[in-house]
Amino acid sequence: MIVQRRAVTAVLAAAVLLVTSGCSSGDGEEPGAGGTSAANSKGPGASSDESAPEDAAPAKGSVKVVRTVAEGLKSPWGLAPLPEGGLLVSSRDEGTITLVDEKTGKKTELGEVPGVSPGGEGGLLGLAISPDYASDHMIYAYFTSESDNRIVRMLYAPEKPSGEQLGAPDTVVRGIPKGMNHNGGRLAFGPDRMLYATTGERYEGPLAQDKKSLGGKILRMTPDGEPAPGNPFGDSLVYSYGHRNVQGVAWDDKQRLWASEFGQNTWDELNQIKPGGNYGWPDVEGKEGKSGFVDPVAQWGVAEASPSGIALAEGSVWMAGLRGQRLWRIPLKGTELSADPQAFLTDEYGRLRTVVSAGGDRLWLTTSETDGRGSPGKGDDKILELEVQ
Description:
By secondary structure, this protein is an all-beta fold. The protein has a single domain, classed as TolB, C-terminal domain (Neuraminidase). It is 2% helix and 35% strand. It contains two helices and 25 strands. It has helices spanning 133-136, 206-209, and strands at residues 63-70, 76-81, 87-91, 96-100, 107-112, 124-129, 138-144, 149-155, 170-176, 187-189, 195-198, 217-221, 238-241, 246-251, 257-261, 267-273, 298-301, 307-313, 316-321, 327-333, 336-337, 342-344, 352-357, 362-367, 383-388. The strands form six sheets. Strands 18, 19, 20, 21 and 22 form a five-stranded antiparallel beta sheet that branches. A four-stranded antiparallel beta sheet has the order 1-25-24-23, with no helix packed on it. Strand 18 and strand 19 form a beta hairpin. The N and C termini lie far apart (45 Å). Keywords: Signal.
């Protein structure tokens, strides 16, 4: 595996539930039977102050769709709020980034990202905003090229005409294994100001256990693409491994990292990520209690979840389901469930892809009906604003 990195100057500079077996391949679209659901040197997740008691999220919560923010989006995947206002949205299949005014719904295309090669579950995927955005105006993107998955950064120049506001991409990481499915693709800067990226194992399970491969991992790096200080395997981007296809990451108020993961025939997962942790794939799927592997905090039958994005709000993880076509609330007390997960919006808006905190009790949520696996209706795809409790 070859990883290449380039720096640029500062100026340019996310209750166990029982089921019968199904299949959650990639975005969870292969038919199958489902069932009923039951900060420090090593980065967020390395340790936390467990001596202080933590309040449990209430057993029951609620969700209200406040409004539809925008409509008519094509295969939206990544969603990143800008500090000055506005939402950046990536189109997986068109390879473009669009600015959405969250107040009016107006859409302005910033430009097309060069080198994107859409196909299957690949294309232009996750977006992240530089932690130094105020000074460098950099946007990070994860995409599938002809040969690999890679991470790039681009200068955002809003003063330029629509369609010409993205600078030339600077490659931060290349050489992430690609496939028709299982490309991972979520990007996020953590509380430690390091960049985290989720990768899939492109249907080659052993890649997830190979710490020399970037496939089937959560990666942690500096904004320049170098292994982050304190990473568990020395001069390596690998932060955790044994993942099948993670598409959601978020941090709680104790700076602990959480991730959602697609299962195959039995269990989808919500994991609390520990540096150097082995999350089992392909040797383990779901909770098996096997030595050497980290069990998920919660699991779902594959027909009920096929999870993509996650966000933290009001003491719970909120997890978007693709095949499950619902939004899951997972109430927490520390690193454990405080009550059984709840499902909301079931079959109301179709496939749900990305959920992002909008601050306080608000979330942004995107639908995913135009990605070739849904049944697009009037206005699809949409960004919704939610109020949660």
